[in-house]
Task: structure prediction
Amino acid sequence: MLKKSITSLINDAENNLNEIFNNIDKQCLKNSEKIINAFHEYNVSESDLYGTSGYGYNDFGREKIESIYSRIFGSEDALVRCQLVSGSHAISISLQALLRQNDTLLTISGKPYNTLHEVIGIKQNDSSLINYGINYKCIDLINNDFDYDKIKKELKSNIKVIHIQRSRGYSQRESININSLKKVVQFIKNISPKTIIFVDNCYCELVEDVSPIEVGCDLCAGSLIKNLGGGITPNGGYICGRKDLISLCAQRLYIPGEGKHVGATNNFNYLALQGLFMSPNAVKNSLKINTLTSYVLNKLNIKVSPKYNEIKSDIVLAIYLNSENEMIKYAECIQNSGAINSFVSPIPESMPGYNNKIIMASPSFIQGSSIELSCDGEIKEPYILFLQGSLTYEYGKLALINILKKLFE
Ligand SMILES: *Cc1c(COP(=O)(O)O)cnc(C)c1O
Result:
């Protein structure tokens, strides 16, 4: 039950969040400047908006997009493609491109994101890395930080690739910020300079203004229906990093011998460029809705992570609810607050790549887009719902008001 009216609860929150919101605005300005400068540097022109068909040779728009991504990430090269189905696909292609028979993959941020279990072979699949003769080892985080002792021990044997996942996925840990990443990368490179450091960068793009590549990682990947798509790019994924490694990824994704030179874009270039242009703003609004929700729910004694005043490195908010029923009701409110399919009720369902049933609300223009206001979670104790996205502050705020009315009044 609410002691205060919803209006005064939200007004209080906004007054108290003034300074934090100002900092989010400043971050958005910095990232916007970085992006517009990259557009200018590569003279993006109207003709770049229109893509190629067929094989997709000589796609100048596509080449400029990849130059712009390289500029923004501070990387030698990039692969930004609509043929990458999603973030999971970009990560899967990266690992398959880098690892060969008898090589070892070591993950140092705990068990990777659910959809990668069959990619690696943590869950049996005939096409997994393990099935192709690749070794897999995993080190858990301790107290939300890397386990340096164990990493040092493992690096005594030959480790081809280290995988680090920054955002928390469906786990209870905190996300990994750029400073912690920088520290562990220096540690690894000191011991084993040849080990390739790969980063799952999903949900972290443009939250801070330094990229994983700029702190010494070799390759990072993510989804275009999250932060960098700005709610506009209809599908795709990106991989940024070392030129030789990007080439391996392109050969794996397409055809050995043709690599980056193929891959028609059709209408993708226009939407990839406009999405990137809009992305700092989408990330800004997502961060504000994350912060506002975190503040208000905390006032109502609901456990949230991160707290409103904790430094963020991704756009995700973990909300600890009391039951399956509360998860469903919360998701229903998010669904009913959106623009598309607002009239349907989300129900928990089994999904490929996940062990438990998943509840998901995504009342979005782009299917499954999670830079648009959305939430999802595995139906299991302790009943955590992960909330993310919001293309505008106002729509996100209206959704929060709807939740407070339906769940707490
Ligand atoms: C979203 C996400 C992915 C990839 O998910 P897709 O739905 O395939 O884009 C991978 N890792 C993390 C941590 C994520 O949050």
User: Anything to note?
Assistant: The radius of gyration is 21 Å.
